[in-house]
Each structure stands twice: as structure tokens, then as C-alpha cells.
Amino acid sequence: MDSSLKDNIKVIAFDADDTLWANQPYFDDAEDRLCSILAEYGEPRYIKSELFKTEMQNMAELGYGVMAFTLSMIETALRLGGNRLSTSAVSEIYSLGRSLLRIPATPLPGVKDTLEKISRSCSYRTIVITKGNMLDQERKLECSGLKPFFDHVEIVSDKNGKTYSDLLAFLGIGASELLMVGNSFKSDISPVLNLGGYGVYIPFHTTWQHEQTDEYDHPNLFRADNFRELENIVL
Fold first, then answer.
1. pLDDT tens across 34-69, in order?
2. Whole-model pTM?
3. Which residues does 84 contact at the CB level (< 8 Å), separation at least 6?
4. For 3-22+104-234, CATH number?
């Protein structure tokens, strides 16, 4: 990032799940376990497809996060298994969902050191903007040990153009003064670019199907292979 751009950016916003700590791998493992529990009702590919369909149908009412995922798993199991589904299977699926509330939220490599350097630079305000269940996201941020590095935390029901427009208004800055860092091109990067802001895209090795989208080049877009490379962009 050139010096004039560094001078212009006032706020760096960070996604949380799969940007600051791993999250999706635990959900992937849960899906695999669900397929094992429901093996007599279909192949893994079919069960995962049915689960995703249920999640999308429930999105408007349940939103994102562990609670929504758990209810969607149980609903999918009841639909596929019908009267043949045992109470022990339902109990196992429920316990599987509850286990996701204990995701350790260990910072990914380079995250803590880089955030510390950004904080010491006193060059930017730093915030977290994440979607999901409020209690769960607050717990993960607390457990990660990263909370002291952020001036503000925003937990939202979705990330789209309106979400970021509202955030800009709350922060009292223009779009060109915001740099968003995240692993989801669809939710973290594209909406900010469309508003005239800047994005640092750090892909994660696994992405939820709902977050997959076509990527594109943009003059305000930076790409990084890992979190440490953020230092070369903002410091």
C-alpha cells in the first residue's frame, strides 16, 4: 500500500471466523459425523446436499451460527429418517451441535503478532465485524485472547452492502477510509469494494458452500496468502 493510501485509511475491519481463528473445519467435521449417523438414509453427498438445502430454507428465520446449524441438522435427520430415526440418533446430533459451542478459537498463525504490531503502530482504529450467534461469537473472541487489540466489535445477522453502509455511518468515516480484511470474498470483500472501500482477501483452505462466489480483480483489492502478509500492506 502506498503512503498516501496508508494516510487515508482510518479503520481496519476484520472478519473473525476463518480469518482470526479456524471455524469451518469444525463444521465440516460435524457434517461428516452427521453423514455417519444417517448413513442408512443416503450417501454422504446426498445428506450434505439435503442439509445445505435445509440451511438455506431456514436462513431467513435462523440466520447463521451454531444454533441454526444444529437445528438444520436435526430437521434434515427427521426429514430423511422419518419414523425410523431413533431418539439416540437425534440425541447424538444434538450433542454434535452442542460441541461446536466449544470451538477453541485458537488464533491462526501470525494473527496475534500482526495485530499487536498494528496496534502498536497507532495508525488505525481496528474493529471486528462478524456474523453468527452473539453469545458464541463473544465467547470465541474472549477465548482467543485477541479482544484487547480491537476498539469495537460488531456482531451482525448478515454482511451485505447495507451492513457496511450502516457500519460506515456508525464509525463516522467514508468508504475510502475503510479497509476490510477477511476470508470470504462474498461477505467480507465484495460489498466493501462496491461501496468504494478497500479489501484484503486472505482465502482459507475450506469455505462454506454458501460463501462461495466468483472472484474478480479490483484496484482496491489486495490478496494475501496468510495473515502475516497483512503487515506488508498496512505497515
1. 999 999 999 999 999 999 999 999 999 999 999 999
2. 0.95
3. 40, 41
4. 3.40.50.1000
